[in-house]
Amino acid sequence: MTRWKTIAVLAAVTVLGGCSPEQTWAVKLTPTGLPQFVDAGCGRPGVRAMWVQAGEKEVWRIGFAQPAEVRELTVGQKPGGAEEKVAWQRLNGAEPLRLSVQRDDGSTPVVEFTLDGLKDGKVSYDGDYLTADDFAKERAQC
Predict the structure, then answer these.
(1) In the chain, how many H helices and how many E strands?
(2) Which of 28, 65, 105, 116 supports an S-S bond with 123, CB 3.0-4.6 Å?
(3) Is 112 helix (H, G, I), strand (E, B) or coil?
């Protein structure tokens, strides 16, 4: 393949989003007010680590010795094979937070949210705050 064809293929992949992981993760609050992370897709790659940042500061992190199938996880939970590396640090409800999920395939989808935005049963999913009913319609039934 010529150099120009290679550049064209790489540009097309980038423009078409081939380098961006599909968004399947969502965030909602438990009745006790803790963030719960939900994988809305089916058959996703295993999870190696999950963390939440407020700006540059990590406010929660969990890692897995082996990639794990994680469909739902609430901060403070420690499923088998997991190690909580940074305990949850409660923050101001208006502070912008970012959940990152490191998958076994090397992708790392991100969900941005605020605790205040999740009040009244809202779910942060794919860049929007949805009602629980609307999220249930979006979530794949596995």
Answers:
(1) 2, 10
(2) 28
(3) strand
DSSP run (H or E) holding 53: strand 47-54
- CA-CA distance, 37 to 101, in Å (whole number)? 10
Amino acid at 73: L
Q: What gap in Å lies between CA 75 and CA 35, rounded to an integer?
A: 6
Along the 142 residues of the chain, how does pLDDT read in single tens digits?
A: 443 343 333 333 333 333 334 678 999 999 999 999 999 887 678 999 999 999 999 999 999 999 999 989 999 888 888 999 999 998 889 999 999 999 999 999 999 999 999 999 999 999 999 999 999 888 876 6
How far apart CA 63 and CA 85 sit, in angstroms, is 7
